[in-house]
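User: Before I run my own analysis I want an independent prediction to cross-check against. Here's the chain; please return only the structure tokens and, at the end, one sentence I can use as a sanity check.
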Amino acid sequence: MANLKGARQKGIEFWRAAVERLNQGESVRDVAQALGVDRRGLERWRDRVNVGEGHVGKPRRREAALAKEVEKLKQTLAEKVLEVDFLQGALHKIEVRRQQSGSGGAQASTTRSGK
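Assistant: Structure tokens:
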């Protein structure tokens, strides 16, 4: 916890009790008004306490944006892998047809003596 100013003034147990009220379903606005604290500060403490206790908290905006970008990149990668697989299959079919027809485009190699 980088900023412990609120903890020194009110005490960590005060904040944990406030976060517990939030976890039980009370609104942030109501708890903040009842305790006389800043709503944003209460939200920050909720995130700190919940993460410290292993609860899943709200992802921060930057983290959410990065997670969304990662999902988009994964989808794009999956599409490109499918394209490569398709093109490799098509190339393989073309090579097989060329070998079967004997028209590979180049002269077949022969021995020099011709015997």
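Sanity check: Residues 102 and 109 are 13 Å apart (CA to CA).
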